[in-house]
Specification:
Elements (H helix, E strand, L loop, with lengths): L2 E11 L2 E10 L5 E7 L7 E8 L2 H5 L7 H15 L2 E6 L2 H4 L2 H12 L4 H7 L12 H8 L3 E5 L3 H9 L3 E6 L10 H11 L12
Parallel strand pairs: 4-5, 4-6, 6-7
Antiparallel strand pairs: 1-2, 2-3, 3-5
Helix pairs in contact: 4-5
C-alpha cells in the first residue's frame, strides 16, 4: 500500500501531550493517524496499540463494545510508561463503514451476534486490513513492540510487516452488561484472546 506522511502536531490529552502524525492513503484518500508519546527508541520494544476507528465507542461512549475503553486505557498506559505509540486506523465497524455498522447493530438488536450480522449484510466477519502499518511505523521510528491487544490478527499483522512483537499485553477493560455477549462472540468466533475477566459476572 502506498501511504504518505502529511504533517505532525501536538495533541494535548487528559493523560499528557502526544504528537499526532497524519497519513493519507494515496489510492483512496483515506486518512490515518499515529500518536506518539515521549522519545521513541527503535532499538527498544515500544509499548503500543493498533486501534481501528469506532465512532460509537471512541466518541459517543457506547457500551455495546469495549473499543472506547481500550482506546483510553492504551493512551493512559503509554503516557504512564513515558513513551509509546498508538496507530489509529480509519476502518470503522471492522472495515464495513459506519452506516453498515448501524445496519449490523439493527440486526443485533433483533438477536444476531456481531459476526452473524456482518455476514447477513454480505460482509466477512472482519474486513480490516493492516498493510498501512509498516510505513506508519517506519515514519515514527518503531521496529519492536510490546503490543496491547487481545486480537491475534493484530499480532500477526505486526509480524507479517517485519515488526518484532516482543510481548503481547492483554487489554481487558470495559466489560458491562451491554457487551457481555459481544465479548464472548469475539472470543469464540473471532479468536480474540480473552481471560476469565470477560466471562465472570462482576
Amino acid at each position: 500500500m502506498s501511504i504518505k506522511y502529511i504533517a505532525t502536531s501536538k495533541l494535548p490529552t487528559p493523560w499528557g501531550v502526544f504528537d499526532m502524525h497524519g497519513f493519507e492513503e494515496t489510492a483512496t484518500g483515506k486518512e490515518h493517524v499515529a500518536l506518539t508519546f515521549g522519545q521513541l527508541d527503535p532499538t527498544q520494544a515500544m509499548l503500543g496499540r493498533i486501534h481501528s476507528e469506532c465512532l460509537t465507542g471512541d466518541a459517543l461512549f457506547s457500551l455495546r463494545c469495549d473499543c472506547g475503553f481500550q482506546l483510553q486505557a492504551a493512551m493512559q498506559s503509554i503516557a504512564e510508561k513515558g513513551q509509546g505509540f498508538l496507530l489509529y486506523l480509519r476502518q470503522e465497524g471492522r472495515g464495513i463503514g459506519l452506516l453498515n455498522k448501524i445496519r449490523a447493530y439493527e440486526l443485533q438488536d433483533a438477536g444476531a451476534n456481531t459476526v452473524e450480522a456482518n455476514e447477513r449484510l454480505g460482509f466477512e466477519a472482519d474486513m480490516r486490513k493492516y498493510d498501512m502499518i509498516l510505513p506508519m511505523l517506519k515514519q515514527i521510528g518503531v521496529e519492536k513492540v510490546n503490543l496491547m491487544t487481545n486480537n491475534p490478527r493484530k499480532v500477526m499483522a505486526m509480524q507479517n510487516a517485519g515488526i518484532e512483537v516482543s510481548e503481547r499485553i492483554p487489554l481487558q477493560v470495559g466489560k458491562n452488561r451491554y457487551n457481555e455477549s459481544y465479548l464472548k462472540t469475539k472470543s469464540t468466533e473471532l479468536g480474540h484472546m480473552m481471560s476469565e475477566y470477560h466471562f465472570n459476572n462482576e
